[in-house]
Amino acid sequence: MPTGVALRDVREQLFAAAERVLLRDGPGALTSRAVTTEAGVAKGVLHKHFADFDAFLAELVHERAAQIGRLETALRDSAGTGSVAGHLADALIDVFGPVGLSIVGLITFRDGLRARLRRTWPTGIPVLTEAAAAIASYLAAERDRGRLAPDADVDTLALTLVGTGHLLFSGRDGTPPETEAVRGYVTSVLGGALREA
């Protein structure tokens, strides 16, 4: 590894390598050796920048959760435009893409990672919890614009959409559901709360 490489570049390189290993080989194959080999760096590079492998994985999860934060901003910016069901279907497709599903699987697979994450996420499953918050925020913005019923319980709708999305996308061997199918489920979950023309 050349000297003078910025920590951020090393982190991104290692995170990208970890995601590739996770997608290709599953959570059981994700080791520090597998990550550094995939990244093309010496094993010591990972341990130079992270206290241990679970600390590295916790940071990987934090990075993925930060991406959900950007999704929340995009969703809120789209409020009042287009189709509510369409925006939500796109969000679920983004959240439950191959990397998102793999990260959730990793969290459930590794006890040490879950224990470390509990320090900052005392409840829920990271990524899923952030997705529910992002969707609830978006639904509240749409309710404020009159596109959802004034009494719509946005928190319950968001949790239901995330749970539905997780079940809908899981275990599909790399073949995601069709966008229209996802939109149909979203529309069903929203039910009578949906007021858009």
Automatic annotation (TrEMBL):
The protein's matches in PROSITE patterns, at most eight in alphabetical order, are given as: HTH_TETR_2
- Record InterPro entries: Homeodomain-like_sf (IPR009057), HTH-type_TetR-like_transc_reg (IPR050109), HTH_TetR (IPR001647), Tet_transcr_reg_TetR-rel_C_sf (IPR036271)
Question: Per its record, what are the GO molecular function terms?
Answer: DNA-binding transcription factor activity; transcription cis-regulatory region binding
Q: Which UniProt keywords apply?
A: DNA-binding, Transcription, Transcription regulation
Question: Which residues fall under the DNA-binding region feature?
Answer: 31-50
Alphabetized Gene3D superfamilies for the sequence = Tetracycline Repressor, domain 2
List residues of the HTH tetR-type domain.
8-68
Q: Does the keyword Metal-binding apply?
A: no
The name on file for this protein is: TetR family transcriptional regulator
